[in-house]
Specification:
Blueprint: E1 8-12, H1 17-28, E2 32-37, H2 40-48, E3 54-55, E4 58-59, E5 63-66, H3 72-86, E6 91-94, H4 109-137, E7 140-145, H5 157-177, E8 182-189, H6 195-203, H7 208-218, H8 227-237, E9 249-252, H9 256-259
Parallel strand pairs: 1-2, 1-6, 2-5, 6-7, 7-8, 8-9
Antiparallel strand pairs: 3-4
Bound molecules: NADP nicotinamide-adenine-dinucleotide phosphate.
Length: about 260
């Protein structure tokens, strides 16, 4: 018996990286999972790789759905499809993300709008569409991906603003949705080895392994993080064991925040 038997979870940006790790963890623990990502074929491919089994609560089914989380109509259509195809919606993980790093004087309007649009507007649109189902059934779990960069990071004015915005967003969701059986929390990862951090290495012209080793050397626990580290925290915050925790931001960073 898994912690998420009979539950339906949505993970945005779940076709790769951290989102894929979270989707796998939920599926391993019994949830039916909808992976939402820009490219429906990639989302479907990732959904097809998830574990599924027959349980007392029924057969797990997974689905991959093309969705741009920054577009209202796309979000509404995707949430409608999740409920139509998987029968309900209990857990939402707002994970989809992009970076458009630049020093402020070089940051374009598009760099700003893109990053705020995907992270902050995306989390807002997805949560607004999902809350209708959560409130009706008096049950729901929201986890949003923040970042240690919320505390400030050179070249990431757009990303830091979005990621600190996420922290204020979940605090407010905690207040508004708590009376309806809904919790909302954020996870703020440190350096996690994914395509996103590999792209940063490429941008500054450093080999990926060297870039990861430098991050590990700076970290109190002397390693980088992996998607499984974030998936474990997401699974806890979305479990019923965490029903008295809401509006919080959990830093999952090996202690990076302590020494920055
Ligand atoms: P990633 O490997 O770049 O994956 C991001 C995923 O989001 C991709 O599948 C991407 O799709 C999807 N996506 C982008 N824009 C989207 C949109 N408008 N609608 C739907 N999906 C969209 O990133 P990651 O490293 O796994 O990061 C996941 C989350 O953790 C992000 O919110 C990120 O900011 C946060 N985070 C990451 C780290 C880290 O060190 N990696 C640290 C702190 C926080 P495509 O493949 O089509 O582009």
């Amino acid at each position: 018996m898994g912690r998420f038997d009979g539950r339906v979870a949505v993970v945005t940006g779940g076709a790769r990286g951290i989102g894929r790790g979270i989707a796998s963890r939920f599926a391993d623990e019994g949830a039916s999972v909808a992976i939402l990502d820009l490219d429906e074929a990639q989302a479907a491919e990732a959904a097809g790789q998830l574990a599924s089994s027959d349980s007392a609560d029924g057969t797990q089914r997974h689905v991959g759905i093309g969705c741009d989380v920054s577009e209202t109509a796309s979000v509404q259509a995707a949430v409608d499809r999740v409920v139509a195809e998987l029968g309900a919606l209990h857990i939402l993980v707002n994970n989809a993300g992009v970076t458009r790093d630049n020093l402020l004087f070089k940051m374009s309007d598009d760099d700003w709008d893109m990053v705020i649009g995907v992270h902050l507007r995306g989390a807002f649109l997805m949560t607004r569409a999902a809350q209708k189902h959560f409130v009706e059934q008096k049950y729901g779990k929201v986890v949003c991906l923040s970042s240690v960069s919320a505390l400030g990071n050179r070249g990431q004015a757009n990303y830091a603003a979005a990621k600190m915005g996420i922290q204020g967003f979940v605090r407010t969701l905690g207040i508004e949705l708590g009376p309806f059986g809904v919790t909302a929390n954020a996870i703020a990862p440190g350096f996690i080895a994914t395509d996103m951090t590999d792209a940063t290495a490429a941008r500054i012209g450093m080999p990926v392994e060297e870039f990861r080793q430098a991050a590990a050397d700076r970290n109190p626990v002397r390693r980088v993080g992996y998607p499984d580290d974030i998936a474990a925290a997401a699974a806890f915050l979305c479990s019923d064991e965490a029903s008295y925790i809401t509006g919080q931001t959990l830093y999952v960073d090996g202690g990076a925040k302590l020494v920055s």
